[in-house]
Amino acid sequence: MSAVDVTRRWFLASLGSAAVATGFLPGGAQAGPLFGVVSSRGYSPTLWYEIGGDGRILVHVTRAEMGQHIGTALARIVAEELEANWDHVEVVHVDTDPRWGVMITGGSWSVHKSFEELSRAGAAGRIALLEAGARMLGAPLKDCVARASEVRHGARAISYADIVSSGSVTRQFTEEELKAIALKPASERRFLNRDAAARDVPSKVNGTAVYGIDRKVDGMVFARPVLPPTRYGNSIVSWDDGAARKLPGYLSTVVIDDPTGTCQGWLVAVAESWPVAAKAADLIAVSYRSDGGAASEDQMLAEGARLVENPSTGGIFFQEGDPLMRIAEAAALHEGVYRTHTVLHMHLEALNALAWQDGSTWHVHAGNQWQSVTLPLVAEALGINQANLVFETSYLGGGFGRRLYCEYIVPAALAAKKLGRPVKLIFARSDDTKFDQPRSPTVQRLRSVTDGRGALLAYDHRCASGWPTRSIFPEFLAPSADGHGTVDVFAINGADHWYDTASQRIQAICNDVVHATMLPGYLRSVAPGYTTWALETHIDELAHKLGRDPAEYRRALLGAKGRNGGAAPHAVGGANRLRAVMERVLEKAGWSGREALPPGKGMGLALGTGQERDMPTWIATVAQVAVDTHSGAVTVERLTSVVDAGTLAHPDGALAQVEGSMLWGLSLALFESTEYEKGLPRDLNLDTYTPLRMTDVPELDIEFLRNDHMPVGLGEPGVISIAPAIGNAIFAATGARVRDLPIRPAAVRAAMGA
User: Which domains are delineated in the chain?
Assistant: First the structure.
């Protein structure tokens, strides 16, 4: 039985027209168009960029900028094949015109899924400009070259600006011609795998960058939501704004009557300024009828534990052979149950949305990671045709997955519709936290059987969690590998590891108690943030149980056999590349000298491969920790990671991504989580929700293994190997094995006592 076929083809089919999503066919275009448009602005080889008569090269970016410098990375891909002068390249973030096709920023997909189309778009421009430039120079095409926004023939040159402004470039391409373009060999690259200044940094430094919370329109009023006691099952019995009416600047309270059922029992307090709206919201008295889920963290985890022990639950994500038979027949079985608690996003820019109507067109300005999903939701709420709704794109002051599903736009739009004027809705931190879309609590049970040499004969991984895709985009659920039911691949990715295993089964189980209580969402690294925690802790346990060095044992399992050998173009080399980053990190971290560490200190190793198996980012981490054996407090002294992400479109941005994601992983490992009480998170602000502080940042040593392979994702992989590396280091230091995240001092003390 094979794995769920989570391929690019499946992704495109799930979201809509594959032609639209390739970026070569404008949305709604008929088959067989010609690409290459001459306009008063200049020349556009494809819709992804245009070259002006002044030489400016405007690269159209559909991805959200949330600190990852994505515009720079994507523009570098175009500039590479176009042979552009980098100083001439500008980034333009576009709105939701249908011609852009599917718009999503998540899953570490942006560079990876855009690389081929943007490369060919850049190459098409180079070809068109070379042909026109050669004609203008009166030179043979074969003797001309394109460099730094010029076509050159010997000592003579003509700029792209002059070629375009002359009107001489008129070349058009069929889709087949675009696909057939041969890209430059890696040896001739001048941009990729080389550093450059990020295009978004100056505006963020000088304050001109526009975030959602900065956007203004004439006649705008401000609003804050008044939220019900739980996410679901609420209706308003009565409300009274008498106290709010005494506030100067208070305007009104709007009851949100939402046709989509997204906002159940919401009101919105409206005022001339946000401070007044914020205060008014606290003064409005509301009586609710509630039958929504009000479960606690303990109840959600208890249900998860029940589900993983019930053999009739779950859909099969991957199965090979019959591990259950081997487990039943085994004389010795290694079993572990691993848990994670609820994690919040806590992005610094509070949720906000500005909505207004201009004639027959509605406009929305809000930080948004998945416009293609939120757009139809808002159109349905407003009762309008989706063609009459436009989302503007802004910088995001933190996304991390929370802005993939922007249900908070709905109350802003409905309030604007009811009031007949623009409404900017801003959430207070406590509002944002109460109705966050957290990473749900999880329970995983792993069972494995080895032979006398330690080879994995059977591996069984069952994971119970909330399924974000079920709530946010159920059409994206994949069929179970056995043909019965569905699976949310984003609730189980990462469990399909690259270790050689004779037989294995991986199952995802949906925890309905979670879904009745919260809207489980996508949080940076998504499923591998917890599946890799369980997997790499379990493998480490096996190594110690067998009396093997944890690195040597992993090395023995990374034989790159069968499907673990990888496949072109995304996973060339397979497990051999995972073994390579492991060998390098062991060398850098001084693994061979770890026995010389003093008592209470230890090193731990963990490996990871990013979010999806068909887009692996190979990463290995060694954590060095010190454990206070009296209090159980853990100090991470050093994190060493080696990463193979293939070609780096923007190396400096790639390094920043890995630095940030490793620190997020450390935060999740030791500091960051909340517990649900009566249907809401216990910790509503950063006084009690305590992510990593600057004083807790260890020494970071990060290295990329440079190569010319297909670029893969970098937004999330750095997160996933940190927690298991720390947990494994705690065991090396103390002999205490922890299986819950985050790792609290009390749990370490208890494990040492056990």
Answer: 8-206 (3.30.365.10), 212-292+351-426 (3.30.365.10), 314-343+438-753 (3.30.365.10)
Residue listed under structure tokens 């032979």: 451
Interstrand relation of 352-358 and 423-426 (parallel, antiparallel or unpaired): antiparallel
Burial of 332 (0-12, 13-18, 19+ CB in 10 A): exposed
- When pLDDT is cut at 50, 70 and 90, the band that residue 746 belongs to is very high
- Please tell me the distance from the alpha carbon of residue 222 to that of residue 206, in angstroms, as a whole number: 26
Residues whose CB falls within 8 Å of the CB of residue 638, separated by 6 or more in sequence, listed in order: 589, 623, 624, 698, 699, 700, 701
Length, in residues, of the chain:
754
At residue 567, the pLDDT reads 94
Asked if residue 60 lies in contact with residue 94, where contact means CB atoms within 8 angstroms, the answer is yes
Beta-sheet pairing, 334-340 with 442-450: antiparallel
Q: Whole-structure pTM over 0.85, yes or no?
A: yes
What is the enclosing helix (H) or strand (E) of 700? strand 699-704
Residue 17 pLDDT > 80, yes or no? no
Structural contact between residues 337 and 737, judged by C-beta atoms closer than 8 angstroms: no
Residue 393's pLDDT band, with cuts at 50, 70 and 90, is confident
Separation of alpha carbons 344 and 398, rounded Å: 12
CA–CA gap between residue 555 and residue 211 (Å, rounded): 47
Task: Quick: pLDDT tens for 185-224.
Answer: 999 999 999 999 999 999 999 999 999 999 999 999 999 9
Residue pLDDT, tens place only, 327-371:
999 999 999 999 999 999 999 999 999 999 999 999 999 999 999
Q: Which DSSP string do the residues of 436-489 spell out, in sequence order?
A: --PBPPEEEEEEEEE-TT--EEEEEEEEEE--HHHHH-GGGPEEPTTSSSEE-G
Q: What is the pLDDT of residues 596-615, one digit of tens each?
A: 999 999 999 999 999 899 99
Cα radius of gyration rounded to whole Å, the chain: 27
Query: b/e map of 535-565 (b: 16 or more CB within 10 Å)?
Result: bbbbbbbbbbeeeebbbebbebbbbbeebbe
* Among candidate residues 334, 439, 386, 417, the one with its CA nearest the CA of residue 739: 334
- The owner of tokens 């879309």 is 437
Q: Are strands 315-320 and 334-340 parallel, antiparallel or unpaired?
A: unpaired
| 311 CB burial (10 A radius; 0-12, 13-18, 19+) | exposed
Nearest Cα neighbor of 259 from 375, 128, 411 is: 411
**Residue 482 phi/psi, 5° resolution?**
-95, 5
Give the Å distances, CA to CA, from 286 to 369, 609, 655, 682: 33, 49, 49, 22
